[in-house]
Amino acid sequence: MIGSGMYPLVSLMSGLATAFVLLLAVSLLGAMIYIIRLTTDDSDKHSDLKMFIETLFTTPEHLRQGNADTDSGKHDSQHERPPSAKTPFSEPCPACQETVTHENTECPSCGLRLL
To answer: Where is the composition biased (Basic and acidic residues) (predicted)?
Structure first.
């Protein structure tokens, strides 16, 4: 019962504040569900919004290693070395000082992945 306490105005304000907070929470939840539905739609109607949301909450497209690179044909393999790394070299491993060459993707001694 609103207003039946010792301080009826305080009780009324408490009820209104609670109703306001609940209304705000429900509207935020509804907005989140609406945005999720827009971004999971397969049509290109909201592609800009979808790209924006994916950039915020996932790895950006230019940093992905899986589908984006293989679909566009930029790289034949996920572990392919860049063209600048194909020049012959022979250097010591930074971790164990074992000699590694341009043919190694990992150190044969310690297993350190080389870039």
So the answer is: 71-83
List all residues 6 or more positions away from 81 whose beta carbon is below 8 Å from its beta carbon: 105
Q: Strands of 6-115 (E only): list them.
A: 90-92, 99-101
DSSP annotation of 56: H
pLDDT in tens, 57-107: 777 667 767 654 444 444 444 455 555 546 788 889 888 988 888 888 888
What's the start-to-end Cα distance of the chain, in Å? 70
What the block records as the tokens of 106 is 């990992």
Is residue 36 within 8 A of residue 45, CB to CB? The reply is no
